[in-house]
What does this fold into?
Amino acid sequence: MTRLAPMSAAEFAAYFEALIPDYAMDKVTAGQWTPDESQARSAAEVASLLPAGQATPGHHFRVIEDASGQTVGLIWFAAEEQGGQKIAYVYDIRIFPEARRKGHARRAFRALEGLVQELGLAGIGLHVFGHNAAAHALYVELGYRPTGINLFKALGPPLPN
Ligand SMILES: CC(C)(COP(=O)(O)OP(=O)(O)OC[C@H]1O[C@@H](n2cnc3c(N)ncnc32)[C@H](O)[C@@H]1OP(=O)(O)O)[C@@H](O)C(=O)NCCC(=O)NCCS
It folds into this structure.
């Protein structure tokens, strides 16, 4: 059975170290930030979201354990207000590269649903970058539906008159 187990301080520290550059890279890939500004902006966003790091109230960090107790990934979510109700917002889920495509994320989300209900939260929200086809496919399969879609079309220089 897949379990969402408590994350140790050492596990959080390793995760946190990768979080800022990874988020910066996603924002650059999405065309929203330049490479030069990305590290500072990512660090600022993370600092404002997690002023007390792992101990920030309302934020939950869990490792994902497979049926044998082996850690195969991690998940970060927070209890947030949305549309007049309290929901769980998933900030991140990661399955370690060598453990991907074995159903761990699908089972982790099922386990999360149970945990979220135990916490008295009404649903699960999340964001996915347009370039993240794997995560998007996962969420569609799990029954998540878009609540808003950002679109962008790159244009070349104007044609001469
Ligand atoms: C996205 C991610 C969490 C998926 O984890 P996973 O354990 O490999 O996913 P699962 O094996 O549970 O896949 C469940 C379903 O999701 C879809 N899916 C998962 N990975 C996919 C991929 N690379 N391409 C297409 N569909 C994919 C499939 O429908 C899959 O079902 P199937 O294998 O029976 O076809 C993993 O690729 C990951 O950690 N990526 C890097 C971090 C990330 O992008 N996190 C999401 C942030 S929003």
Remarks:
- The chain has a mean pLDDT of 97.
- Residues 92-95, 100-106, 128, 132-135, 137-138, 141 surround coenzyme A (CB under 6 Å).
- Strands lie at 3-6, 59-65, 71-82, 85-95, 124-126.
- The first strand starts at residue 3 and ends at 6.
